[in-house]
């Protein structure tokens, strides 16, 4: 039996990642999508919905993250889970990096 395919990917930020909101797909399959999202201080993403359950981990910086209109602050080490298609928005208070894991609905 062959081992599962593995690939090492850097998730920490890189200086060149900061500019306008930048998202980088780190892993993509039919069951999961992992994205590194880099935002400069004061950048924001308007309300939107993910196509399935979403886990957000703050790796660097500090953001205001609103879910269904209820704001909360995320900082390094914080983890947040959203149900499928919950409305959410993000506003970077500092240069920030988030790791997003989405499990698209079938």
UniProtKB/TrEMBL annotation:
All copies of domain Cupin type-2, residue ranges: 39-98
Pfam annotation, one family: Cupin_2
CDD domains: cupin_HP0902-like
InterPro entries the record matches: Cupin_2, RmlC-like_jellyroll, RmlC_Cupin_sf
Name of the protein described by the UniProt record: Cupin type-2 domain-containing protein
Species annotation: Bremerella alba
Native organism taxonomy: Bacteria, Pseudomonadati, Planctomycetota, Planctomycetia, Pirellulales
């Amino acid at each position: 039996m062959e081992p599962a395919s593995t690939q090492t990917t850097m998730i920490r930020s890189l200086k060149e990642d900061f500019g306008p909101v930048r998202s980088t797909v780190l892993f993509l399959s039919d069951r999961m999508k992992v994205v590194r999202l880099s935002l400069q201080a004061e950048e924001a993403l308007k309300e939107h919905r993910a196509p399935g359950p979403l886990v957000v981990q703050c790796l660097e910086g500090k953001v205001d993250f609103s879910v269904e209109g209820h704001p909360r602050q995320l900082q390094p080490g914080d983890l947040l889970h959203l149900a499928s298609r919950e409305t959410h928005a993000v506003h970077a208070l500092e240069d920030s990096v988030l790791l997003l894991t989405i499990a698209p609905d079938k």
